[in-house]
Amino acid sequence: MGANAKNKLSKKQELAPVISKFLFYEGDDSSKSEHNEYIVLKVEIRELLREQKNRQILAEVLLELQKDVSGETLIRLQLLYKSLGLHEDAYKKLKSWRWEVVSKGILELTRMRVEEAYGFITPFINHKRSVVRKQAEIAVVSLRQEGIKHFLDSSRYSVSEWQQLKLLEVIRNFKNFDPPRFRQWLVSSNPDVVLFSLRLIKYYDQNDAVNAILPLIKHKNNEVKIAALECIRQFGYEEALAHLKNIFFQCVPDVKLLILDTIANLGSESDIPFLKSIESKDRNFTIISKSLSAINSISPDTVLPTEGLDETLIDVPDSDEKLVETPINDTDEEFILDVTLDAEHIEERNEIVEEVIAVDTEEMTHIMTQTQELAESLPKPQHNAMSFIVHTDEIDEDLDTQEAVLTENLGTTIYPPTITEVDEADNSEIEEIELTPGELVEATLLKNLHYVPTESIFKTLFVNKENFEKKLLLTTIEFAGDAREIPLLKEIIANEMDKEIKTLAEDVLQTLIGNDETLQEMASRTDENEVFQMLSVFEKLFEEGDKDSKLMLLDQIAILGDHKELLFLNKLIKHKDVQIRKKVITIKCELEAKLGIVKTEECSAHEDVACTSNTSKMVLNAAVTVRNKQRIAMEYAFLSEDLIAEELEEDIPSELTFQLAEKSFAIEDAAEVDKIIAAHRSFTAELEGLLGQLNALPKILKDKFNG
Amino acid sequence: MMNKNNSIVLVEDDELLASLLRYRLEKGGYDVNHMANGKIVKEELPKALPDLIVSDIMMPYLSGLELIDFVRNDLKSDIPIIIISSAGNEENVLNAFELGANDFIAKPVSPTELLVRVGKELKKV
Which has the higher per-residue pLDDT, A191 or A669? Predict the structure, then answer.
């Protein structure tokens, strides 16, 4: 603590008992000695107050005490403040050119309830500094009961929610407060004044204001609209319902919900047709639900549950005490794993474990190869990417039939499960099979092989939904969906029983596809995975980039692209920009040559027709060669980076080292390699500098390269 | 005004408020011993127990709740304790009563009201 602060503290401690004596001086009731002591103290304190510093300390002490005391002591303290003339210092503060001093002055006068300061403070209600303004608002409203009127009349600035609460708190604590008719401020040009007035009308139950409130349901400000609706609801103003219905469909969801709530509270049977019409006219799920609940509020049990009911369940009278067999739910799971082991099985399992451990690496590789081949020949799952189906007639009988069983995590705990298979074609036939090691590995692999991470996010949302939710989802897909939703839409069209949903799905699919040839081709594919594989990562980047970045991206497509990009390039052949169009033709030829679809010569011949006359075969061939080298160099660079990263983790994978050596071997000239890598890096840097929105490109390319 | 022999320990860390309350209680006829924090209370109280304790809840070293617990369980005393707490601090007040406080007065404090409550508690003893 500094010397100044210490002095101040000791002065405060010195003054505290003096203040106490002043505060609790009983006047005429006090003894003569007390009276004499009081007079002496008064003289002393007047002497003390000649110094500005002491005045300031005394004011601070009184302000501090003001916070902690109440009742008669507080009133005496405020009187003491004024009788010592300390409020004069506060007035001086109001004249300061520093806003924080002004603010302190207003605060001091408010706390000490210097009513005479009211006139000095009112101009600060529209001060440019919000701190001063807020302080003045509180002061004006606190110091005099009519302060609230002055505030509502003259406030030109916005009044925050918090400030409104504080002001309400002030007037709420007034004794014998006679609130003015707040409806007179509903015509204010300040929307916050209107809003605050509406809240005050509601708080003070001024229900004679409803006629003035009604027009406010059409106010531009939604907060005002909501406050007006709350008043209407609270005052039970039924005449407003017709107006509410008229404006309903033009309102934002929050207001709609409140209108529905009001109709639910005040409405009658005559409002039910309107509420029913909302279901067909509005697409918002919450609003539709609210309208249904409003119907039930007006007329209970009008809307009964119809969705998600099991039609096969029938009411059985209590007297019929028949035993009903619980049906086996054979559609939810393709497999039921039975891992219950008896003693015989445990012994058997131990033998199997020993056998499995004895399987050497070569045998395992053999099994894996067979499994992979088998996996390709097996049907793919239709719904859940994590489920798998095994058809016994399709399992290769040549596979090892030993009873060893492998789990996903080879080398850990091993169980011999019996797997109950459910034939999809005939549900009545349930057959128990025991899997061979190969079959189990295959099942495990299948499970992972067909996991499609890029599937539509709507897919899981659509399952087991009621019709109105399905409609809502389809509408969302129409607005927010893209090519990823095509398989889901096709699946809905194929399997949906409800005609309305089916038609809606068809419409949405048509909207999504439009005139886009690639999308049309995607929609014609039957395999879901094939569709996802058709999506090029470059497409999105291309859409967002400018012309230069588009040309650069085309170069990258030539280096890193595959079949997906061919589809994308086909789409770009009709691009409106001539330069891009020409480049697309060149890149498409190169890519086709790289993928072995056409030979370089054919490509060049084709190029001759498409390109301008000065594009020679030699230049084209040179470009293809350079790009091939660029591609290898980029792969080399990425692998180097990966290797460094792996080395940092002190675990160098042999496969990576091998790949790196392979790339290095592919580039014969070391100097050329360095040159290409440097060019690639500068290209990447340039790309980052030029195109802020494409700054993630190297990572995307790297991720793409790494599969 | 009241029995002059009654002694009160006032535990309050705010010097200004303590000075004001002390003056009011002394003027009401009590011997008031002001202790600024719980540490002093723990040292001084076992030496001589007062007739009543007026204590703030929020204090350095020892809270008002701990003080009640100390008096009731360590000193095994049932002298009246009046707690001063901020308005709205309901949980603390309930805890104080549970621990054995006799009365409660909210801040901002009315010194006159405190005087009345002190007199009432001492009358019960």
Answer: A191
Two tokens, residue A581: 């169009």
Interface probe for A, chosen from B1, B20, B85 (most Cβ of A below 10 Å), is B20
Q: Which residue of B has its CA nearest to A21?
A: B23
Q: At A229, phi and psi to the nearest 5?
A: -65, -40
- Which value does ipTM take for this structure? 0.88
Query: Are A61 and B16 within 8 A, CB to CB?
Result: yes
Among residues of chain B, what percentage have pLDDT more than 70?
97
In this prediction, residue A386 has a pLDDT band, given cuts at 50, 70 and 90, of very low
Q: Cα separation of A611 and A623, whole Å?
A: 14
Look up tokens 């304190």; give the residue. A45
Give the residue-averaged pLDDT of A519-542: 67
Q: Which residue has the tokens 């034939």?
A: A423
Cβ contacts of A17 on chain B, cutoff 8 Å: 19, 23
Structure tokens belonging to residue B68: 């009640």
Using a CB-CB distance cutoff of 8 angstroms, which residues of chain B are in contact with residue A24?
23-24, 27, 111
C-alpha separations of A619 from A569, A596, A626 in Å: 21, 20, 10
Record: contact A69-B109, CB cut-off 8 A = yes
* A139 neighbors A120 (Cβ within 8 angstroms): no
Percent with pLDDT over 70 in chain A: 59
A628 class by beta-carbon count within 10 Å (0-12 exposed, 13-18 middle, 19+ buried): middle
Q: CA of A13 to nearest chain B CA: how many angstroms apart? A: 7
Sequence-ordered list of residues with C-beta below 8 angstroms from that of A631, at least 6 positions apart, any chain: A559, A560
Best probe of the B interface among A37, A69, A75, by most B CBs < 10 A, is A69
What stretch of H or E contains A248?
none
Closest-CA distance of chain A to residue B98, Å: 26
Average pLDDT score over residue span B83-95:
85
Asked, as a colleague might, if the bond just before B108 is cis with ω within 30 of 0, I would say yes
Contacts of A61 in chain B (CB under 8 A): 16
Do residue A74 and residue B15 have CB atoms under 8 angstroms apart?
A: no
Q: Which of B1, B19, B22, B30 to mutate to test the interface with A (most CBs of A within 10 A)?
A: B19
What are the tokens at A87?
């409020």
Would you say B86 and B40 are in contact if contact means Cβ atoms under 8 Å apart? no
Tell me the residue type at A396. Answer: D
Mode of pairing for the β-strands spanning A418-422 and A430-434: antiparallel
The residue ranking higher by pLDDT, B6 or A311, is B6
Kindly give the interhelix angle for A222-235 and A253-266, rounded to the nearest 10 degrees: 10
pLDDT at A23: 87
Calpha distance A653→A651 (Å, rounded): 6
C-alpha A353/C-alpha A331 separation (Å) is 33
| Interface A-B: count of C-beta contacts within 8 A | 57
Residue B86's closest CA among B38, B14, B16, B26?
A: B14
Contact A38/A30 with Cβ under 8 angstroms? yes
Question: B23, A73: Cβ pair inside 8 Å?
Answer: no
Identity at A308, one-letter amino acid code: G
| Short-list A401, A400, A381, A359, CA closest to A445 | A381
Q: Which residues of A touch B10 (CB under 8 A)?
A: none
